[in-house]
Amino acid sequence: MKLLLTNDDGINAKGLHALARELEKNHELIIAAPNSQRSACGHSITIHEPLYVKEVKIDGIKSKAYSVSGTPADCVRVALDKLMDRKVDMVISGINNGYNLGTDVIYSGTVSAAIEAAIYKIPSMAVSTDITEEVEKYEIAASYASRILSIAKDKYNKDDVVLNLNVPLVPVEEIKGIKVCRVGGKTYDNYFIEKLGENDDRIYELKGKLNEPNNEETDVHYIKEGYVTLTPLHYDLTNFNILNEVGKIFNKQ
Asked: Which InterPro entries does this entry report, sorted A to Z (predicted)?
């Protein structure tokens, strides 16, 4: 398969490199990633300034790679239009430094890059794993990404669905299996720490406490239980369950 790899942690991110090393064993890759850290940028795109694209060499990786002065979604757009000489079979975004579970998928640049591909009717996958101060390891997640890719290629290659893959940070022998599940609840009690800067400017630093309701059968729940989670996502945010209900009320007005 011909694959486009991207991320939101930047062209120098270890997770991207681990994913590239694993996938280029059996696939043809082009890498296009932001030139700097762009985590939590969501689905933003650059419209008021040009994008600067530079070919770079990544040690230990033979595939062509490009840094882009934009967002993850920008990377997908410019790669599809200018950097690839034929149609890509799948876009894979990651491996993200940290899970993309629950409502975090709304803010995630990693997931948004995969959604950008889906908008253009290209199959896509977002890949994430947890990282701690003591452990930064991506090889297990890369292996699972390769495994899911092989299955999807033969049995489920939908061009408008994002496969959101999260791999727990545990030894591979402790992983209990793969759970296909829905997005769970995950919110934050956000607050800001106020400081004074130069000229008495007010500076606000975001802090927050994580809230994770223990809803069973969700990605948030299963990742804690030691499962790899796989959630199909779609960019159509319509709530079809209440579409007719709302229509009956407002179409009469």
From this structure: SurE, SurE-like_Pase/nucleotidase, SurE-like_sf
